[in-house]
Specification:
The chain is of the alpha/beta class and 560 residues long.
């Protein structure tokens, strides 16, 4: 069992039900939350049969907190005293139990895939229109309005595809991921139902509070106002595109909680990496971090900035560095991150053409049966037929024999894999190329395997790597050219901070002076990101980085 820090013990012993824990990346937040739940139960604050509700944003986060709780609670306590759910799971539970309160049937189909995205693919809407349709549906439904009001707003929006998809949803008797919290909020507006949940859950814990949408916070408050522990870090709020409002949520949470406990000691990253994260704190609003054990990091770690003439030169440096690192520390994990997958394509190409073990997180991992079906389908489909199909996704479903798959979990996995194939084929990727990108395993493969990992900043949140290389740090890419408001620019700075803070030993951020457009191939002059100057005082250049690698005591690095 991990020896708790004093701050973690303070959280366990905190006597009141309301609490805000500000915990930047690598500071022991998950451990602190497990201790918090242990303290609530041991003190009898949540006495049987009442329970503690823990909400998360993903199955991975749910599993992480469950694993840590197992170190502090008995199996019986885990079963009888704690409920752990992501927001979609909690909303589905509320809907199933109380749908009649808002005049709906509990038999409506609960989503197990991105149905709206599938409809956009089936209608061949294209990337931009598909994004506009999904954004409109999400933004409309985050207002907590009923089906009639949703339809009224969609009629006035002048996006007929969104309206058609919503009407089809209603006709099919199904719900989408955006409907679940919408309907849960409507149900909890009933005081009788809300009181049932307030009584059932004596305390509530919210992990990564900065990722809450206003709607999700309203749901939390109907169940746990005045008795909720919020934990997270404003500087990691990077989901504005999904409706999160980190600064707004932070202000409201602080107004509701009587005590704030802040962590500032990082157990994950070297002093050099923390220097990069701290350098961005004037932009991100983050807490200044110190290393919990600075002397334990060989040579203090590495922080570097490098400018290349082209992304090809950048990718060449990346692969040479990755080879050196894995030859020096074969069990290390190297994360190559970019703001977008498109800008990372140059690094992807050289890594995947190399002998190094590599994992592209955009593609995910398929189980053995799903991989076999997908490979067979890709071998026999006709791309020309796919391109002219009225419903491209349905064409793939038939080619893969989805209707004949009976096992629900296999159907879900195959459906997600077909969505992935459909997206790539519509982007012009050849079936043979897609086959080479298939990896077999499970999620633990991505989380634990040594080698080179290719991912974006959003996907990388919550992960850690021994080394991080951020590519494509040009203005227009970081920050994204569409980020124009102060809030959007701040979120872009937070994305950079999140990417860098994934690193344990060292981080290198890179940019190119000319970059070809992904579609036309025309090369454009680029400037370093506007965030670049903030990092310069704490970073070394290419020559100094190479000298660091050559001088390092790799026995010590491997042990740390």
């Amino acid at each position: 069992m991990v020896q708790p820090t004093q701050a973690q013990l303070d959280i366990r012993e905190h006597p009141h039900l309301d609490l805000l824990v500000v915990a930047p990346a690598g500071c022991g937040k998950t451990e602190a939350l497990a201790l918090r739940v242990q303290g609530l139960l041991q003190r009898g604050t949540a006495a049987p049969p009442r329970r503690v509700l823990i909400t998360t944003f993903s199955n991975r986060a749910r599993d992480n907190i469950r694993d840590r709780l197992a170190s502090y609670l008995s199996p019986a306590a885990m079963r009888d005293r704690v409920t752990i759910a992501n927001f979609h799971g909690l909303s589905a539970r509320i809907f199933r139990a109380h749908a009649s309160v808002i005049g709906l049937s509990s038999d409506l189909v609960i989503p197990d895939s991105d149905w709206v995205g599938e409809q956009c693919r089936s209608r061949n809407l294209g990337f931009q229109l598909s994004g506009a349709v999904q954004d409109l549906l999400r933004e409309t439904k985050q207002q907590g309005i009923d089906d009639d009001a949703v339809e009224e707003q969609l009629i006035s929006s002048k996006l007929p595809d969104a309206l058609d998809i919503e009407r089809q949803r209603v006709a099919d008797g199904r719900l989408t991921y955006d409907d679940l919290p919408r309907l849960a909020e409507l149900i909890l507006a009933n005081d009788g139902v809300a009181e049932l949940y307030r009584h059932h859950f004596e305390a509530v814990v919210v992990d990564e509070f900065q990722d809450l949408t206003p709607q999700q916070l309203r749901i939390v408050n109907r169940i746990g106002h005045g008795k909720t522990t919020y934990a997270g870090d404003l500087a990691q709020g990077i989901y504005g595109f999904a409706g999160a409002r980190p600064d707004e949520i932070d202000r409201q949470v602080r107004s509701e909680t009587s005590t704030v406990i802040e962590f500032a000691d990082s157990h994950r990253s070297s002093p050099a990496v923390l220097g990069m994260v701290n350098a961005l704190s004037p932009l991100t609003g983050g807490t200044a971090l110190t290393s919990a054990r600075p002397a334990s990091w060989p040579h203090g770690g590495l922080a570097a900035q490098i400018i290349f003439p082209t992304p090809e030169a950048e990718a060449d440096w990346v692969i040479k560095c990755a080879r050196f690192l894995l030859s020096s520390a074969p069990n290390h994990r190297i994360g190559i991150l970019a703001r977008t997958a498109s800008r990372r394509r140059f690094a992807d190409a050289v890594v995947e053409a190399s002998e190094l073990p590599s994992y592209r997180w955009d593609d995910g991992i398929l189980d053995t049966d799903t991989a076999r079906i997908i490979r067979a389908m890709l071998s026999r489909i006709n791309v020309a037929d796919f391109q002219v199909a009225n419903d491209p996704l349905d064409y793939l479903r038939k080619a893969a024999g989805l209707s004949g798959v009976q096992d629900p979990s296999t159907r879900e996995a195959l459906g997600a894999a077909l969505n992935w194939c459909c997206d790539l084929l519509q982007q012009g990727v050849a079936p043979s190329s897609i086959k080479t990108r298939i990896r077999v395993g499970d999620e633990s493969t991505l989380l634990s395997m040594p080698g080179v990992h290719l991912l974006t900043g959003h996907v990388g949140k919550g992960q850690q790597f021994d080394w991080v290389m951020v590519v494509g740090a040009e203005d227009g890419c970081i920050p994204d050219f569409r980020a124009t408001s102060p809030a959007a620019i701040q979120e872009e700075a937070r994305i950079v901070s999140v990417m860098l803070s994934r690193a344990r030993h060292g981080a290198v951020i890179m940019c190119a002076q000319r970059v070809p457009a992904a579609t036309s191939g025309v090369s454009y002059a680029k400037k370093p990101s506007r965030f670049w100057p903030y990092l310069q005082p704490v970073c070394v250049d290419s020559a100094a980085a190479v000298a660091w690698f050559k001088a390092a005591n790799w026995d010590e690095v491997r042990k740390r």
